[in-house]
């Protein structure tokens, strides 16, 4: 199953809105993500990410709620394994 997962923007690179990227923290795992669809995203914002692209900005409360749901469904198992490696 493919899911869009929330993460926190911890840094941003680039000035061109179509080429802007950010480092996004997913519960301890940091990935580079395209911010082209959310040009207003700033460091500290939570974004919903699918296949390496941030699709929207969400509140911290909403992001935490999604993580709680994913834990309940055991969908974070792969993320947890990656973090432990």
Please describe what this structure looks like:
This protein is of the alpha+beta class and 85 residues long. The chain has one domain: SH3 type barrels. It has helices spanning 60-72, 77-84; strands at residues 5-13, 21-26, 29-34, 46-50, 53-58. The two termini are 22 Å apart.
What descriptive keywords fit this protein?
85 residues; SH3 type barrels; 25% helix
Counted up, domains total 1
What about the largest sheet?
A: 5 strands, antiparallel
Q: How would you sum up the global shape?
A: elongated
| pLDDT averaged residue by residue | 87
User: What's the number of helices?
Assistant: 2
Task: Determine the fraction of residues in helical runs and give it as a percent range.
Answer: 10-25%
- Strand percentage lies at 35-45%
Number of strands: 5
Q: What structural category arises from helix and sheet content?
A: alpha+beta
- How do the SSEs run, as a string of H and E? EEEEEHH
Cross-sheet strand order for the largest sheet:
3-2-1-4-5
Rg calculated over all Cα atoms: 13 Å
CATH topology: SH3 type barrels
Measured between the Cα atoms of the first and last residue, the distance is 22 Å
Task: Give the low-confidence spans.
Answer: none
Which architecture per CATH?
A: Roll
CATH class: Mainly Beta
In short:
This protein has 85 residues and is an alpha+beta fold. The protein has two helices and five strands, in the order βββββαα.
Topology:
Blueprint lengths: L4 E9 L7 E6 L2 E6 L11 E5 L2 E6 L1 H13 L4 H8 L1
Antiparallel strand pairs: 1-2, 1-4, 2-3, 4-5
């Amino acid at each position: 199953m493919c899911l869009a997962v929330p993460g926190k923007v911890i840094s941003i690179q680039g000035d061109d809105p179509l080429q802007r990227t950010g480092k996004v923290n997913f519960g301890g795992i940091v990935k580079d993500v395209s911010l082209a669809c959310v040009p207003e995203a700033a460091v500290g914002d939570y974004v919903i990410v699918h296949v390496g692209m941030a699709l929207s900005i969400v509140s911290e409360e909403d992001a935490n709620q999604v993580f709680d749901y994913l834990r309940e469904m055991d969908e974070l198992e792969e993320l947890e394994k990656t973090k432990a490696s």
